[in-house]
Specification:
By secondary structure, the protein is of the alpha/beta class. About 40% of the residues lie in helices and about 10% in strands.
Length: about 220
């Protein structure tokens, strides 16, 4: 019997990455070698890390934390509101969770490029074939680094940049948020298992774009 194909999951603690990692782990012939959580000074780092830790334990995979303070510094200098101490976040509505202006306000320079590269380095070193991400078609409409084109471009880069031909896989790539919530329910998760809020308070704010897109009651 062939050895299972191993994956390194980028795990933010949020809905999309959690469902993607769990879906990958349930596929025949695949197993999670590790999950990576990246802390870069984001507002929600603490509750995100706590959710990621719970998810990794549930998935029976070790969680590795990567500290990237320089990425937070770049985000702050470029005007991102996603970093602690940078002013108020934009708020949306259920009908219009976000727009081009709100996307710009939470953009972190080359974040998914950096994350994929870091996960690919771990995958190559650990003998894993895949980087597992929670990209999806709803966010891809606003953020190009969530799109199928980004995955394809990443695979082209990694074919040249890794000796083992690490690939990016995203089980949620073709789904919108409502479909990801449905998948989460089917996998046995509840909303309390994730932290998808941009804020880092005691409870999700319910008003930021991430909260509005990830709600379980649409």
């Amino acid at each position: 019997m062939a050895a299972p194909a191993r994956g390194i999951a980028l795990l933010s603690g949020g809905l999309d990455s959690g469902v993607a990692a769990a879906t990958f782990a349930r596929q025949p012939g695949r197993v999670l070698a590790a999950c990576l959580f990246v802390a870069y000074g984001q507002r929600a780092a603490r509750p995100e890390a706590e959710a990621a830790s719970r998810l990794a334990r549930r998935l029976a995979a070790p969680l590795l934390t990567i500290e990237l303070p320089w990425l937070g510094d770049l985000a702050r200098s470029s005007g991102s509101r996603l970093i602690r101490g940078t002013g108020d976040l934009p708020h949306g509505t259920e009908r219009v969770p976000g727009d081009a202006a709100s996307a710009a306000a939470v953009w972190v320079p080359a974040r998914n490029v950096v994350f994929v590269a870091i996960a690919a380095a771990h995958a190559e070193a650990m003998g894993a074939r895949f980087v597992v991400t929670g990209f999806n078609r709803e966010e891809a409409a606003t953020f190009a680094d969530n799109s199928a084109a980004f995955v394809a471009a990443s695979d082209t880069m990694l074919a040249l940049g890794t000796r083992t031909g690490v690939q990016v896989t995203s089980p949620t790539l073709a789904l919108d948020k409502a479909e990801i919530v449905a998948s989460a329910r089917a996998l046995g998760f509840t909303a309390a298992d994730f932290w998808s809020c941009y804020e880092g308070g005691a409870a999700p704010c319910g008003r930021c774009e991430s909260c509005l897109r990830s709600r379980w009651t649409r």
